[in-house]
Design goal:
Layout (H helix, E strand, L loop, with lengths): L1 E2 L3 E3 L3 H5 L2 E6 L5 H10 L4 E2 L2 E2 L16 E2 L2 H9 L3 E7 L2 E6 H5 L3 E4 L1 H6 L2 H4 L2 E6 L3 H11 L6 H11 L8 E3 L5
Parallel strand pairs: 3-9, 3-10, 4-9, 5-6, 10-11
Antiparallel strand pairs: 1-2, 2-11, 5-8, 7-8
Length: about 180
Amino acid sequence: MKQNKNLIYNNPKQLLMSSKIVLVGKAAAGKDFFRKRMMDKGFTFGVSCTTRLKRIKDNEVDGKDYHFKSDKEFDVLVEAGEFVEYQSFNGWRYGITKNEFDNSDVMIMNAEAVKLLPSEYAKKCFIIYLDIPLETRIARITERNDIHDNVMRRVNDDEKQYLNFSQFDCKITNSDF
């Protein structure tokens, strides 16, 4: 394992063998910021499906930030076998379709999604874990003022999900990346 102050590489050779980049991290770790920077450089973003409500303050757009689905619409996709992976998190369901996976360069997932990736998909991925300090994340979540969610519930759920998370190729710990 190679590392410096803010980067830890579990498997640096994986980057050369991968065709997809997966950004993983707890709430408000900077995943969306990072993916927008990558899109500015020409990367194509794989938009996940979710049953959660749009964040009004963040001006989320259907088809750009997420494909916002009703429970029934999500069920239809599950039954049709359209998802590479899907799961429930924080009371909502999330998943990425095979089409989005195949036609994108970069995706955002959580720890559970990474664990659920079938091996034929996982071997195509270079996984970057944004492991940002708790204080920074709480400040960012609070600033969002999301009326549909509770800050400490999100933090506690994330701490449980990411406990012992090690399925990454690179970890970034600097909140000013």
